[in-house]
Each structure stands twice: as structure tokens, then as C-alpha cells.
């Protein structure tokens, strides 16, 4: 059984791929990899990567070997790094292409130069007693300049065409076209039977290489958001060791370590401020432009910029658990996935190049046999028109139409705190007409805060004696801090933050225990005394404590009446303090509900809170009373969404907790607040990193704009090929102009995608 479980374990891996030139390459790689049992591969042409989910017993080297077998090179992309787009190689190729192509095109196309150049070359050959060539020496000069361009600069294109012989790609079209023009030029000038087309071979390759260089630069610009995120991570951190500041690699930082953040430095990782005050800029991670004021008890996000004050932070998350790592992982996942609309493009791309090749052959024979005479001139013209058909086709644009738009959208979204995790959101966003919202953490801040702390002196009388020197607010809060720092419950974290804000110190704790649903306990070493401290619900504490002091009982009753969570602290069975912990409505919740209504989306509130709390919040933010469901269990949320879907609605679910995970997975479209649980985030299509709920409206707008851009790209590609191919087949274009049109078509798709805001 253990062996079977091991075999079922899947491991995600990402590879950077070189050699892809169009969507036909994408299909070839995916077909090759997906033929391996248990492997699910998705190639992204825009990022030049392949994302593979494969059983962990399949070695990385075997996957790379498979990709190479398909005719491409691949390297594993390590976690936390960005795949390299190959602009350096394309830039070098463009440099040499310009050197050889421009003189060739100039000599070939400026006919008044030919006679003079022929005369000059012949005179030089006579002077050197060299045998004169047959026919035009100028043409031979142009052929000579074209030769290194064909066989050196364009060698990668010909290699790609050869290895993809049985599944032709864009390189196949370019290779056949340029070699045909070059070969015909040699034959024509050697026999004198017709014109040479060196400018065709040189011009086509120049435009192709220029187009790929511009594409590479544009794709790098489109992926800049991911590169920026990756660059934010700290490499070193200043930690406190026995009171001394020590610089260590970030990889050695552990949970519980205290580290120093100086003014102007980035916070190394997620943590809790234990000393100092400052303002923190989270804009690169959450899109929130307003700096946040932090003080002891405040939680901070790794990679945020510390503006002014020196602070000491206690590590709470490291490595892949940090907020930065989560955002980066989701952005990479989104950029590697395919939108459903891409399926149409993939199906067309699979047959596009073979169809174009057959069309070019048919065009050649049509012009050859239908010419006015079967002369060499007719042959030359037929070859030229066939080459034009090959060159004008643009499968590159077809392959770039969807992934580049998605690449740009995911980058733009990430810079504004909107992480598109699933490409299917693009097509669903425009259909949403109902939104189901959770309460805590969604419509409210989700950050539990001590709204009232009651520490009555009258409760201390039973503990007089040994504790007389410690029965004060500072010591009581110190015991609360010491226990709750080890508690990950939101109420416990709120109490710890409150104690820190009051200047409480942490003391050693022994015999620590935690009871889910009840509270925490332990012995806190306060110098010469060590009271047994319990913090928990009033009911739990009442079982282990003496009768509550009237002031304590009154504080509990008031907090419960206000709908707050209540925690009672006791020393040695005597209740000494009451903490009323609550949540607050987000400032933009009402405005968000109004904005959703304006675009035709009906809001529902489905929460586990009581009826009074739920209805009060609904009235405050503008949700109709008949659309409120209180005391809802996870299965109730799921049932409500299913009912709405059965009624014909497209449902958006927004939540943040573990109890929302099933509903998020069931909804047609789902969004999770970035402050929520990992379970909720992993179940959602979109993660909203900003605390503002208005981010949901922005996410819907971004999705709609992206889908519109993709449709525009695909419309352009189809229109271009439908119009361009017949024009080329009719002989109304030269190959060089066709090459320019082809390059501009791909560039248009990329630049149009860059317009997404």
C-alpha cells in the first residue's frame, strides 16, 4: 500500500525551453510529454516554459530528455527564480542579420547600380587575372553576402525546421522560403535563365529575426511583474543572538528568531513587531499605496519596505510559507496555465503550418501551369509567389494571442494585489450575476482586536500575599503575552498584540497546554513567583476558577451582549482580567456592495454568525434582508451556492476561512482574501492581497479587459491570415513585404496585450 501511495505522489516542475518559434512547437512538446504515463504538461509560448505535473519517481533528467527528443532544449527552473527569455541571443542574431542583409537588399533592389558595379567588379578581376564569372558579378556579390546570413545567422531556424520535419512549424515555412529563394538565385545567375531573389532570402530572414527580437523584448516587459516580485526577497537578515546583531543568510532564519529591520530596509520575512515603531510600505505586494503604521504587536509582511523607524520583528513564517512566496507561486501558476479560449487556437495551430505548406505548393503549380508560357520566367514568378505564401503566414501571432495577454494580466494584477490563479476566470467574470460573501475577514477586517480590556482591582484580593507585588496591569498583561505568543488562535493573537502595545514583557512558560475551543494554560515564571495562568472562554475558566468577581462577571456579560468574543485570564484559579475581542466592518464594504449592484450583480451574505450580527451588518453595507443567511455551516454555504446555480445564476463566492473552502471550490468563480487561510486561497481562482473588498470589483474588471484583449488578438490573427494568404497567392505581394507583414502581425499581438491595465 505504501508503494502505491508513493507512485501516486505528483510533483510540479517547471522547465525553461529554447527553440520554440510558434504554437506548432507548443503542440509538439505537449504531445510528447503527455504521452508519458501520469504526466500532465502545459507549455506557455509567451514565457518559453513548460509546467509539468508528474509522478515523483519520474526523474527530471528523463523529462528533459523527452523534450530534447521533440527537438528542443530545456533546463529546470529552480524555485524562487524566473525563467530567462532569450533576448541576448536574439539581439546578437539581429546584429549580424543587419550587417549582411541590408547591403544585400540594397544591391539587389537598386537596379541602376548593377551595370556600374558589374563593370567595376569585372575590371578588378581583369587586373588580378581572375576568371570572370558567368552572368552578373553583382548578383554573385549579393549571393555571397547572403550566404553567411543563410548558413550561419539563420542556422538555428534551419536546424529547427529539420528536427521538426514530420510536424512542421513556423521555422519550416521560413527555412523553405529562404532556401528556395537562395537556391533559385544561384541557379538563375549561373544559367542566366532569370532574375535572382537574394533580397527575398535576406529580407525575409532580417524581418523574421527583427520580429523575434522585438517579441522577446516585449515578452520580457510583460513578465516584469514576476521578476520584480522575485527580486523583492531578502538574501541576508540581521538577527539578534545573545543581544548581538549577527548577519546570516535568509535560508538560516527560523520561526521564533528576532531580527532587526533598519530604516530604508526591506523586512526579511513575515513576523510580529516586538519593539520599535515605524511606517511600512506594502505597495509592491498588496497594491496598497498608503503606508501602514506599525508598533509592538503589529504584524508585518516580508519584502515590505520599512520607511523610517528601527524595529525588531519576531519571525512567524519562513520560506515557502511567506506571503511573498505565496504570491509568487500563484503568479507563476497563473502564467503557466491555459485559458479555455486557448483551446480553439491550439486546434487551429495543429493544422496551420501543414495547410500553409500545401497551399504554397498548390500556388506554385497553379502559377507555373497557368502562366502565359512555361518559360523560366514563369518558373521564377511561381517560385516567388509560393515563397510569399510561405512567409506571410503567421502562426507566431496565433501562439502568442492568449498567453501574452494572460502574462500581462497576471503581472498587472499582481502589482495591484490581484493574483489570477486560474485562467478560467477570464471567461466567467463577464457572466457573474450573483455574489455570495462571507462575513468575517471579507466584509469585516478579519483582524481580531482587543476592543476592551477589564482588569478590576477588586478581583485581586483573593490572591494577596505572595503575589502582592505582581498584581498590577503590567504583570497580568505580561502573563497573557507569554502564553498567547505560543497560541495561533486569532483571539490569542489579538490578546498578545494588545499586551505588546501596552509595553508588556515576555517571561518563560513551563507546562504549556492548549485545549481547542477552550483556551491555553501554563506556569509563567515571574521572578520569584510562578502562577498557573489560564486564558480561555468564560465557560472553560469557570470550571477551574473560583466564583467570578462582580466586576469580572459584569465585563463578561457586557462583551457577550455586544457580540464580541470573550477571553478570561486567571491566576491560580482566580479570574483577574476580561478581554473583549472583536472585528470591524471594512471601510469600503458598503461602497463595494453598491459597485457590484451597479454592474448587475446581486449580493448575498452567508455567515456562521448569529442572526442579530448578520442582519445588522447587512443593513450597514446594503445587502437586502431576504439575501441574508445566518448560523450557516460549511455545508449550508455549499447548498446555497448549488441552489443559486440550479436557478440559472453564475455565482461568485468571496471568503477567507477554512469553512469557506468547499463553497469556494463549488462556485463558478471564487475569490479569497489574501489574509485568509491557505485552504481558502488554494481553493480560489483569484486571491485578493489588498485588505480592501473593492479589489473584487477591480479583479472582475481586469478579467473582462483581459478576455476582451484575447478576443481582439485572435480576431486580428484570423483576419490577417484570411486576408493576407489570398493576397499573397494572387501575386500581389513580394516576399520581403510579406516577411515585414508577418513580423508586424506578431508584434501587434504582443503590444496590444501590453495595453491591459
Could you explain the architecture of this structure?
This protein has 757 residues and is α+β, with helices and mostly antiparallel strands. It folds into 6 domains: 75 residues, Alpha-Beta Plaits (2-Layer Sandwich), CATH 3.30.70; 120 residues, no CATH class; 86 residues, Distorted Sandwich (Calcium-transporting ATPase, cytoplasmic transduction domain A), CATH 2.70.150; 145 residues, no CATH class; 120 residues, HAD superfamily/HAD-like (Rossmann fold), CATH 3.40.50.1000; 134 residues, Calcium-transporting ATPase, cytoplasmic domain N (3-Layer(aba) Sandwich). It is built from 28 helices and 26 strands. It has a 7-stranded mixed β-sheet, sandwiched between helices. Strand 22, helix 23 and strand 23 form a beta-alpha-beta unit. Helix 6 runs antiparallel to helix 8 and helix 6 runs parallel beside helix 9. The chain is elongated, with a radius of gyration of 35 Å. It starts with a helix and ends with a helix. The relative contact order is 0.10. The N terminus is likely disordered.
In short:
The protein is an alpha+beta fold and 757 residues long. The protein has 28 helices and 26 strands.
